[in-house]
Amino acid sequence: MMFATRMKVIAPGVVAGVFITYLLSRYLASEVSAISPADALTYGLVGMAALPSGLLAASIPARRATRLNPMTVLRCE
Question: From CA 71, how far away is CA 51, in angstroms rounded?
Answer without folding.
Answer: 32
